[in-house]
Design brief:
single chain, alpha+beta, 13-stranded mixed β-sheet, six-stranded mixed β-sheet, 21% strand, disordered C terminus, transport, IP5, phosphatidylinositol-4,5-bisphosphate 5-phosphatase activity
């Protein structure tokens, strides 16, 4: 709905304009009484075209999303069904309930997430970019040059529709863009207050946008990832608008950019840094390189404490800055350390202002964006950014960011002479409104990350901390602990589902024969952009029995000397602490650190250097992950997980620690396990395996079996069931075949052969003597009173077609009552050159386009029978024998046609070729349920450049070049409940009644809160359904004001590579 004012002097009129009609108001004077009255008339919108109008409704309105709904294209089972609080249909709302009566709505969780009030969109301007980047007079919800893809939370929902849009010809694409079908959705905060500075009316707005690149809840998303994205990364902008000046100042916050974690189940949990300095530095440099390229110089404000467990993070932060060879410490990146807790310990939060003198020069140097509204030119631009962090980047960070915003805002007001330089304005209404905005913003960001409002918000609002405020903070702290332990897991899964990150999750696929043809041709050339190679891997397991004695581990890690130097080493240690009750309850993690250094010293004894990429410890279990320095660049997405099984899952003396990572495009998972002890506890060990296999979970809900290659190893505690005397006699006699004879009584061998556990796993040929139990320091089996039966308790099993065993044996180390075991493998891995792949895609497309243009008649949709594209037609006939190729209709001097439907098999021109991963060629769509998602859409980020002919200041280019890889995954739900997208193993036959795909639309009842950025009013109203806005034909009214433009978008997906199995070129080697 638009509100227009006639600018004609003779006739002043106001029009309220809808899509088709206008309600026109104009003054009228009675001819007899000469009194004025208001005439009202309902007219067609087209009748306004001969009048001059100026828009009165706000130019930049932000809409809060209060509710969304999902609809299925070919199944009405869930249409307009009222749901209860658990997502199940209310009885009586369905004529025929069937399975719905017992099931939840398949999209209920995502519906609930997107309706929690933290999502926003705008039809008037690019909500993802700052005012300085998009420009003062920018129009349209998406701008090709300024859109920031990392803040667009609807990226995955619209992935396929964007691909469809990008492959349209330029004329058709322009129609789609101008009609405003696509928009962007952010998650964060937006609010506007109207106030006055003296007599000048101003609007104050705060917009905060959280990045989705490393999105998640408090303890599920910490630190940095391999692409340089950090958790809780938020860009916050304060905007002041008046008829004289427009002002903005932008700040960012984000987690400490190193690899670290905390245990949610423990109060004041110790920070665990999970990757070495050498392995972290590339991701650290990448993070700051992006910030410098986008914003300019970065001023870091680190608020971590110099005591407790935060000090190690500060040390690591400072160390990375000093050791970086790419960033230019004290040139492009500056560090200010301010111990917030120490500074405010005595004088309260007022002492936080002590930071201002430390950063005053940086504030003045960095500056702010200012636009002179009356003179219509840029006065100044912000050159640089403040990056603030504490541990969670919430409470302390918000307070300090508010102080900086307050200080610079006053500097601006003095610079433009809106306030007296000596005036005390802290009690003014506009300052109170400013503080309230920051407090509301802090509460919202905290709600997103932790589930509660921010601490210290009482001080942010009132400038003082009351007793009730302190009591409220204590209550919030307790609530956070409960939410972190019992609710965040489900919230994280819902976030991952919205972003398309769940295992095997895929976007709803649109039928596109032209794209499929190009992708099929590209797949034939896969050898030109895919490199297959071998990677040598060494896995070891050792129960050290609580020993922390230095020893030479060469016989275990280099069993044949430097003739075999693996690329990757993964070691599992058990019982790194004593197994007493007190030691288990008060686990000493320094014992794990001891073994880190011992192993690292041994691995680096030759000319090759190994880097520790990950340590995962749980009480007495430790897993160490080392990578050869020249191979680190291929390793991405290193994650860890643990599961306790001791004493019914309460203690970590038994259980497992696991890690996963990706080497190129091949994923690996390693599980170091310690099962229940005892000769007869076979069932308990099976239960341990099942519990670990079920509960070990990585980011994005990945499980152990969601990886290409899987290894289980450790002290599995399976025994030999033969009599102790018979076993010892066989071992003493060493007759030919004695190992094989004893293995017939091995419990693990029997369990695997019977399919009870480790189904489809393999164990290399075992030809070494039992590894348990020895007298300390000797090769003599147990001579104690118990005289335990010698057994192969320490084992390594694997699963994966790309794995080739080279050696499997034990090592003669005598520092424990166990012997260490190792296994060497050669693995087949594949690495994709994305740039080369894209070049080939463009080449295929250009060749196709040349053939299309060679046809005699120009066309938009097809060819004549005599001039049709033979190759494409042959492809279509081959894949879809029943499809009919449409004929080309000549189009000359006619208006642009409507966009072709996504299921058209015509040879439409592709305007540009995206970097999207080629999809498999589909069969013709069948009548099975298929959910189709339409939602606000993400454009990719672009380099931003601002310049003004009237400004004497130079412009600075900004860009965000972070890559977005949308994994091919799907929302899945077992049973008959209709999921968003169902993914099944290749062997499973899909049932048509079990597959449903839903449309994401704003319902007609959606409430919309309008937050005015450049206007004088704030209103809350119910919005109409989201529908394309038709262009108006009005004199003196810019079309850009009522339509939206969508730039070309290139969403990227992680490549789903074909695996190449190499023939084994050499015999198995045994150390």
């Amino acid at each position: 709905m638009l509100i227009l004012l006639s600018t004609e002097r003779r006739e002043r009129k106001i029009a309220i304009v809808s899509e088709s009609y206008a309600l026109l108001f104009e003054p009228i004077r009675d001819k007899i009484t000469k009194k004025l009255s208001c005439a009202i008339e309902l007219i067609p919108k087209e009748d306004l075209q001969h009048h001059r109008f100026k828009r009165l409704s706000p130019h930049e309105v932000i809409n809060k999303i209060y509710a969304v709904d999902f609809f299925c294209l070919n199944d009405n089972s869930w249409d307009f069904i009222e749901l209860d609080h658990s997502g199940k249909p209310i009885a009586g709302d369905l004529n025929d309930l069937h399975e719905q009566q017992l099931s939840r709505h398949p999209c209920y969780d995502i519906r609930k997430l997107m309706s929690n009030g933290s999502f926003y969109y705008s039809n008037d301007f690019d909500l993802t970019s700052t005012l300085q980047n998009r420009g003062f007079k920018s129009k349209g919800s998406i701008n090709e040059d300024t859109t920031e893809e990392e803040y667009m939370w609807n990226s995955f929902l619209m992935e396929e529709i964007i691909a469809y849009r990008d492959r349209l010809d330029s004329q058709t694409k322009q129609i789609l863009d101008h009609e405003g079908f696509l928009t962007t959705v952010i998650r964060g905060f937006a609010e506007t207050f109207i106030t006055y500075i003296k007599r000048l009316k101003i609007s104050l707005t705060v917009i905060s946008k959280q990045s989705w690149k490393r999105a998640g809840t408090r303890f599920n998303a910490r630190g940095i990832d391999d692409e340089g994205n950090v958790a809780n990364f938020v860009e916050t902008e304060l905007i002041m608008y008046s008829n004289e000046y427009c002002y903005s100042f932008t700040q960012i916050r984000g987690s400490v950019p190193v690899f670290w974690e905390q245990d949610a189940a423990i109060m004041n949990a110790k920070v665990q840094i999970t990757r070495s300095i050498e392995a972290t530095q590339p991701a650290f440099d990448e993070h700051f390189a992006k910030l410098i390229h986008k914003y300019g110089p970065v001023n870091i404000i680190n608020l971590l404490s110099t005591k407790s467990n935060e000090i190690e993070l500060s040390r690591r932060y400072r160390s990375h800055l000093q050791k970086s060879e790419k960033l230019g410490f004290s040139k492009n990146v500056y560090l200010t350390e301010f111990d917030f807790h120490r500074e405010t310990a005595q004088d309260g939060f007022r002492a936080a202002k002590n930071i201002l003198p430390l950063i005053k020069d940086a504030l003045l140097t960095e500056g702010y964006f200012c636009y002179d509204v009356q003179e219509d030119h840029i006065v100044s631009e912000q050159n640089g950014i403040f990056r603030t962090n504490c541990l969670d980047c919430l409470d302390r960070t918000n307070l300090v960011q508010q102080l900086m915003s307050h200080e610079l805002f006053k500097i601006f007001l003095k610079d433009v002479e809106l306030i007296n330089p000596r005036a005390n304005v802290d009690e003014s209404d506009f300052i109170k409104k400013h503080n309230t905005l920051w407090a509301d913003q802090g509460d919202q960001i905290s709600q997103i990350y932790t589930g509660t409002n921010a601490l210290k918000s009482s001080y942010s609002r009132k400038g003082k901390m009351s007793f009730s405020g302190a009591l409220s903070d204590a209550k919030k702290s307790v609530s956070r602990m409960y939410i972190n332990n019992f609710m965040d897991k489900n919230k994280q899964q819902n976030i991952d589902a919205l972003l398309g990150r769940l295992p095997n999750q895929k976007p709803v696929r649109l039928y596109d024969p032209v794209g499929d043809y190009i992708n099929e041709e590209l797949s034939k050339l896969s050898s030109q952009y895919t490199t297959t190679s071998n990677m040598n891997l060494l896995i070891g397991t050792y129960n050290v029995n609580g020993m922390s004695k230095r020893a030479d581990l060469s016989k275990w890690l280099f069993p044949i000397g430097n003739k075999f130097k693996p690329d990757i080493v993964v070691l599992g240690l058990q019982e790194v602490i004593e197994m007493s009750a007190s030691a288990i309850l008060n686990a000493d993690n320094t014992k794990g650190s001891f073994w880190e250094y011992v192993v690292k010293d041994c691995l680096n004894q030759y000319d090759e250097q190994y880097i520790l990429l990950r340590v995962e410890q749980m009480t007495s279990l430790v897993i160490l992950f080392f990578v050869k320095s020249d191979k680190v660049k291929y390793v991405k997405r290193v994650e860890g997980s643990t599961k306790k099984t001791g004493f019914g899952g309460m203690t970590g003396n038994k259980g497992a620690v696991a890690i996963r990572f990706e080497y190129g495009s091949t994923s690996f998972c390693f599980v170091n396990a310690h099962f229940s002890a005892g000769n007869s506890n076979i069932d308990e060990r099976a239960n341990d395996y099942l519990s670990i296999n079920k509960n070990i979970s990585f980011a994005r809900s990945r499980k152990i079996l969601d990886n290409d290659s899987v290894f289980w190893f450790g002290d599995l505690n399976y025994r030999v069931t033969l009599a102790n005397e018979a076993v010892r006699k066989e071992l003493e006699m060493k007759k030919e075949g004695y190992i094989d004879r004893l293995l017939k009584y091995d419990q693990l061998t029997q369990e695997i052969d019977s399919g009870v556990i480790f189904h489809d796993y393999c164990e290399p040929a075992l030809q070494f003597r039992p590894t348990y139990k020895f007298d300390f320091g000797t090769d003599i089996y147990d001579t104690s009173e118990k005289q335990r039966t010698p057994s192969w308790t320490d084992r390594i099993v694997y699963k994966g077609d790309n794995l080739h065993p080279l050696a499997y044996s034990s090592a003669p180390l005598t520092i424990s009552d166990h012997r260490p075991v190792y296994a060497a493998y050669r693995t087949d891995v594949s690495i994709v050159n994305e740039e080369k792949k894209h070049e080939l895609s463009e080449k295929i497309y250009q060749n196709f386009k040349i053939k299309e243009e060679s046809a005699d008649a120009p066309s938009m949709i097809g060819t004549d029978d005599d001039n049709e594209d033979i190759e494409l037609e042959a492809y279509l006939e081959k894949k879809h024998s029943n499809s009919v190729s449409p004929k080309r209709v000549p189009v000359r001097n006619t208006p642009p046609p409507l966009p072709p439907s996504s299921h058209s098999s015509s040879t439409i021109s592709l305007a540009s070729l995206t970097k999207r991963e080629p999809r498999n060629i589909p069969d013709l769509p069948t009548r099975e349920n298929s959910f189709f998602s339409i939602a606000p859409t993400p454009p990719t980020s672009r380099t931003k450049l601002l310049s003004s002919p009237k400004s004497s200041l130079s412009s600075r280019a900004n860009s965000n070049q972070g890559n977005s890889y949308g994994p091919e995954q799907s929302l899945s739900k077992k049973g008959g409940v209709p999921p968003l997208v169902i993914s099944r193993p290749s062997s499973a036959k899909p049932k048509q009644d079990d597959q449903r795909k839903q449309i994401l639309l704003e319902p007609e009842e959606t409430k919309t809160e309008h937050v005015e950025v450049q206007g004088t009013t704030k209103e809350t109203k119910k919005a109409a359904p989201v529908v394309p806005i038709k262009k108006m034909s009005l004199e003196n009214v810019s079309i850009d004001e009522i339509t939206r433009k969508v730039p070309p978008v290139i969403p990227k997906k992680k490549a789903n590579l074909e695996k190449f199995k190499l023939s084994q070129a050499e015999d198995q080697k045994r150390g």
